[in-house]
Amino acid sequence: MKNMFLAATALCFGALLTSCKQEQSQEPGSVIDPLASPVYLAPDNNGIVLQDYFPDPSVVDSIGKSAGFEVVLSEDEQVLSLNPMDGMKPVENLRIYTAGGVVNDIPVFKSTAEEVSFKLDDQEKKYREVMLKGAFNGWVPERSVMEYQDGAWHYKAVFYPGNHQYLFVVDGQEMTDPDNPIKQSNGFGGFNSILEVGESGSKPMVNMEAIQENNLILSSDKSLEGALVYLDNQLLPADMVSVNGTKIGVKLPGRVTEGRSFIRIYPFDTKGSGNDLLIPLENGEVVTDAGVLNRNDMHTQVMYFLMVDRFRDGDTTNTKKVDNDTILPIANYYGGDLQGVVDKIDDGYFQSLGINTIWLSPITQNTEGAYGLWKDPYTRFSGYHGYWPVSNTKIDHRFGDEAVLKALIDKAHDQGMNVILDYVANHVHKEHPLYKEHPEWATDLYLPDGTMNTERWDDHRLTTWFDTHLPTLDFSQPEVVEKMTDSAAYWVTNFELDGFRHDATKHIQEEFWRTLTRKVRERTDRPIYQIGETYGSYDLIRSYINTGMLDAQFDFNLYDASVAAFAQPEAGFGGLARAVEQGMEYFGSHHLMGNITGNQDRARFISYASGDVRFDEDAKAAGWTRDIEISDSTAYKKLEMLHAFNLMIPGVPCIYYADEYGVPGGNDPDNRRQMKFEDLNEKEAALRNKVSELVKMRTGNMALLYGTTQVALPEEKVMAIKRSYLNDEVVAVFNKTQEPFSGEVFGTTVEVPAGDYTVIIKN
């Protein structure tokens, strides 16, 4: 592959030069598996790692020529750079030929980023230094030093459409933008300013209308310039696709493959791309009944996260606290185990909720000691949560053994449920044999300037330690990547697990994720769903999501917006509506991002909604210093609305255990209270029943699984969401005002009580 030339139609790779022809025939079946993630061009870096799409890049023969971008191959022949040219359409196709003339097609999106100017007035120059920090620069102000000119401080940066949080740092002190009234709680007692970029609702909206004589008919609310249509990873030829004004016609290719395949449609007009469509096929025919889908269809997932130790004690013989007087009871083991999860599978608890994916907290052996420190009240902590591993393959004796894990997985599968495992790769406990034998495999605890490299989440995100007893592994070393990816792959090769939730994703180099995904696919013959945990900008989150790395990440930006919208009385729905649109803009209209009701690093939603935890206080301290209960019962309805919202939008809804009935709590560890199955009060029982109803609505409706998504704001505090798939249509309207809402939404007249919501289903 050292020699190559640009032919009339293709860029050829030297090692297979003789097979590159000016007219290539399209052979059936792409070698890319699963669906090829789109490429989103950026203003500064448009490199594509070939391994993300081809585990063995040597199979690549040549690259088709595009009128929209120039293709440049790196010297090591591992990376393609796509340089946009004048006249590039909003979305173009990248065609890659592999051995034997096999066609592999990947959609490529033109960058939509735009330059934004920041300004802080300072006519008298009272400030010595002003910097800018936000998600866009990893919250590291030194990366964005503002310049003083003409009585003000200035800075320019590039942003994609959407909402972006930021702060000024003035002489070392953080402050919101005094000229920007739009703010959002940061979840830690403060607020960030919100920059709004782009115009909401300006994209073409395309819906699938009908199937007529083996043809798909789609319509748009705006006149279209074109559309790229794919059968899995191959672009359909022009004679199978017609675009005429607001109409798209697609001739279905028929039974090309057995079982599941997909039609993917990427429409665009002269201004930009529209929503994309993902249409599942069964033996070549469009799926119109959700009953045809199964647990391998990732878009059908409704996930339930449970902390094993706090869920249920099913085997009292393995119940054992850490014997250390410095650990308060709330920070010690409660006794939950894998048998407890098996018991709740057996008694139908998950099925009664409609859950089809169980996410287990980490179950590997953790330290037996007491570590960490909270000063008031004084306590150390056990490893009850599972995130302090001293082994990467051994099950913690307090949770069970291999036999009970296998039984859990088998029983879940028998009931049509998936099981995914929380896996910790970023760090180990200092008692871990790996660290004892290879201390050089960890990053340095101290930085060159002598300061301690702990909790430096953004400025040293790939090397920082979480605490002094948790060495972060150095994944820039190939031997560490090999060892740790083998350990992770062990869980899906030795157990029939269906996926991973990956802890601390952004703190690990991309090479780890590429290597792990390659090994998982080589060593298993089933779909493995991988979802990561990253707090940060949309760009950082998306950088870990593609065909060769992760399927998704949890959308914490969406969660922050939803907490503000549903829990803060004064907040409108504008920020949340924009967050939904921004998620689809960044991750696709049919993304698999995790939409959560809560998580382990925040106070329980219901406690914010009830006002028992304030947004301007330290929620962790609140959990330690007072007994947090629910003083305002309207919080149950607000939590129900959050559940309904998550179950209406694209992505994978995820219920944090006990949110189905509304457990209160401050931040960790108060948000990890013991799960309760019985003795629910009237409001708790009513909420759990309603959540079950909503979940089953989701999993049984094609519009909610694969439909197009539209968001509207009839009023500032009234939000409507519409999902459409052929004749199936679901409209939800959320009203957080103190008055009933009555009006027309998406062509339907609706009435919604004050502080409530309604769902209308049509088919």
Question: Keywords for this structure?
Answer:
5 domains; Ig-like_fold; disordered N terminus; 763 residues; single chain; alpha+beta; lyase activity; lyase; 8-stranded parallel beta sheet; 15 helices; Immunoglobulin-like
Task: Give an overview of the whole structure.
- Helix 9 runs antiparallel to helix 13 (about 635-650).
- It is globular and about 75 Å long.
- The strands form 10 sheets. The protein has an 8-stranded parallel sheet with strand order 33-32-31-30-27-26-35-34.
- The chain is an alpha+beta fold and about 775 residues long.
- Residues about 1-10 and about 15-25 have low confidence and may be disordered.
- About 20% of the residues lie in helices and about 30% in strands.
- The chain contains 15 helices and 41 strands.
- It starts with 9 loop residues before the first strand and ends with a strand.
- The protein has 5 domains: about 10-110, no CATH class; about 115-195, Immunoglobulin-like, CATH 2.60.40; about 210-285, Immunoglobulin-like (Sandwich); about 300-705, TIM Barrel, CATH 3.20.20; about 710-760, Sandwich (Immunoglobulin-like), CATH 2.60.40.
- GO terms for molecular function: lyase activity.
- Keywords: Lyase.
- One of its GO terms (biological process) is carbohydrate metabolic process.
- This is Alpha-amlyase.
- It comes from Robertkochia marina.
Give me the secondary-structure topology.
Layout (H helix, E strand, L loop, with lengths): L9 E3 L26 E2 L6 E3 L10 E5 L4 E5 L5 E6 L6 E8 L3 E8 L4 E8 L8 E5 L12 E3 L2 E8 L2 E9 L2 E3 L7 E3 L5 E7 L8 E7 L2 E6 L5 E6 L2 E2 L5 E4 L2 E5 L8 E9 L8 E6 L2 E2 L16 E4 L1 H4 L26 H9 L2 H5 L3 E4 L10 E5 L2 E4 L20 H13 L3 E6 L9 H5 L40 H17 L4 E4 L7 H14 L5 E4 L5 H5 L9 E2 L2 H12 L6 H14 L6 E3 L8 H6 L8 H7 L8 H15 L3 E5 L25 H18 L2 H5 L1 E8 L2 E8 L2 E8 L5 E5 L2 E5 L3 E7 L1
